[in-house]
Specification:
Structural class: alpha/beta
Number of helices: 14
Strand order of the largest sheet: 4-3-9-10
CATH superfamily of the largest domain: HUPs
Oligomer: single chain
CATH topology of the largest domain: Rossmann fold
CATH architecture of the largest domain: 3-Layer(aba) Sandwich
Number of domains: 3
Helix content: 40-55%
Distance between the termini: 38 Å
Order of helices and strands: EEEHEHHHEEEEHEHEEEHHEHHHHHHEE
CATH class of the largest domain: Alpha Beta
Amino acid sequence: MTLRVYNTLTRTKELFEPVKPGKVGIYLCGPTVYKPSHIGHAVGPIIFDAIKRYLAYKDYKVTLVINITDVDDKIIAEAAEQGREMSEIAAEVEADYLKCLETLGVTSVDHFPRATENIDKIIALVQKLIDNGAAYVVGGDVYFDYTASPDYGKLSGRRVEDAMHGSRNLSGENKRHPADFAVWKSAKEGEPGWDSPWGRGRPGWHIECSAMSMDLLGETFDIHGGGMDLIFPHHENEIAQSESATGKTFAKYWLHNGLTRVKTKAAGGSEKMSKSLGNIRTISELLEDFSPETIRAFVLSTHYRRPLEFSDEQLSATAKSLETFYRLFDRIERATGADVYGDGKPIEKLSDQTDGDTDAAFVEEILQHRLRFGEVMDDDFNTAGAIASLHEMAGAINRYIEQTQLETRDNEAAKTLAAGAGVTLVNTGQILGLFMAKPQAKITKADESQIESLIDERNAARKDKNFARADEIRNQLSNMEIEISDVQDHTIWRKK
């Protein structure tokens, strides 16, 4: 299936055809760095990191850009409240953000441009708008004239009158029209600023993204992403000012991810994640309770355009779901001696080693699930459907191990195929940034000794038909985050 993406601009799924064949430029709006990053700040980067990985898998050369807004009214206010420099606050929060992204496996980003390092490019773009008659100067402020963009509102479908609300611009008493927005703001006494032809000031919110994206990706690039809350006014204004400056299409495809909402105790209830409601969890806090892979899989388990219903219970359910894979990988290693995270051959290279109908049917089933993975990803990057395909693949491998009695019988051909299927499963998951490394269980020698002792006691209790005690020990081990499985005449265990 040929890749199709849902374009917010046209409100339809379109065939994906890059501006330059074989190359893809992606720009994602990043954070304003004034407070520690929360789960909402990780959603877009995880999604677009997975999108880049998939495009790279399809042999596109991809450049992914995520900006850092490090000068803004919110940062200035935070610095004043803390009695610190704006640059100090911004650098501190940015460092936390980048560290969290790396921990979450968001490692494919090519550029993290900062607004403060691109002031010259921003000033040049503002001047171009003035020269084109699309912007005007009022005192030390510069405003974009919305009438210079005859199709203003084409992304959001909102009327011009709506531009009077929800903007992060100056009050603008001297603007020609309430819909006009600031591209350059004069600096007040004591505020940070940069010299410009219109006086000392700083860039408006929207102009930063236009200047940095076009500098790194060209005046017309392929994909512009961000949360749905940015469609208006931010992305609408980006389009207006960028296309007024260049006379060219700004971004060909607009991809918007759903908002992150917090599930409430009320049945089926959820609410917006916000500071005022006190329901924000920072990424650092979440990483204390959940593995990075759990958080990443949680985000990707929902189609990117749908709202993400966040809760600890949902994350715990995702962790349990991942255990299905981890148990399988351990099972394959016990039965075959192969480490599926290693350099083994995937099953697609082992089709000539089948021994009978059972093997042939197994290989075909795994390849069909792999094919299905690509089909759903080609349908607007459906990562939720892709993860469902991974689960189907895992189920097929478990059934094959049972069919061939691989854990109790010596069958080299079956071992080779089971190991190859495991490698295929891991390789496929890695296209989404999952299964990049074997989970590390933190167990001390003392813990190991205690676990083995409890398992011996449980086995003795079962032998004596004291099943109540055996169940107590199982529960005790479970509380220790230890999962046990009875296989033939022995018990195996692993850290959850």
